[in-house]
Amino acid sequence: MHLKFDILWFPYNEVAMSHPQKVVKELGITYQHSTPQSMGDCWWFWNCEVTPEPLPPYLSEIKLDPMECIGYGLSQEDAEKIRDFYKKPLPNEIDLTLLSELLMYSDRYEINIQFWPNMITVYIAKDGIDLCDYGGDFFFAVVKSLQYLKRVNNEEE
Asked: Are 127 and 83 in contact (CB under 8 A)?
């Protein structure tokens, strides 16, 4: 969640204000990066966690793409770090194209994919009857499963 801290809220409400970063810290909010916005009299706090419910009136959620904010207080490097903050690498070097091709058969077959630390296992069943399973690295398990499904469905490879 990204938050905007409205600096002008404080003087309009006759409340003494500390520095925005200090106020946010006192609220227990953790964040990845903060960006002052002098033209908007606000601060942006990126990838906030542990936010109070409800938010105080001077804080609001903002829906900004950090890549569109490059040059507005964010460098290319900072924007990429903010964008990629929650991205987790896929295990076992997964190829999403192959995975998508395998899952296209899920309307006719029960396909169960188990991800283990050093391998992937693909189980294929139909109407509750186990047909086959392949285990190994991603490419072996998925390619063998696709070959099997194409063979039993009389499809060309």
From this structure: no
What is the rounded CA–CA span in Å between residue 138 and residue 117? 11
Instruction: Give pLDDT tens digits along the chain (157 positions).
Output: 999 999 988 877 777 778 999 999 999 999 999 999 988 889 999 999 877 889 999 999 999 999 999 999 999 999 999 998 877 665 657 788 899 999 999 999 999 999 887 788 999 999 999 999 999 988 999 999 999 999 999 987 6
Cβ neighbourhood burial of 58 (10 Å; 0-12, 13-18, 19+):
buried
pTM for the model: 0.56
Q: How far is CA 68 from CA 92, 139, 153, in A?
A: 32, 36, 47
Tokens found for residue 37: 């916005």
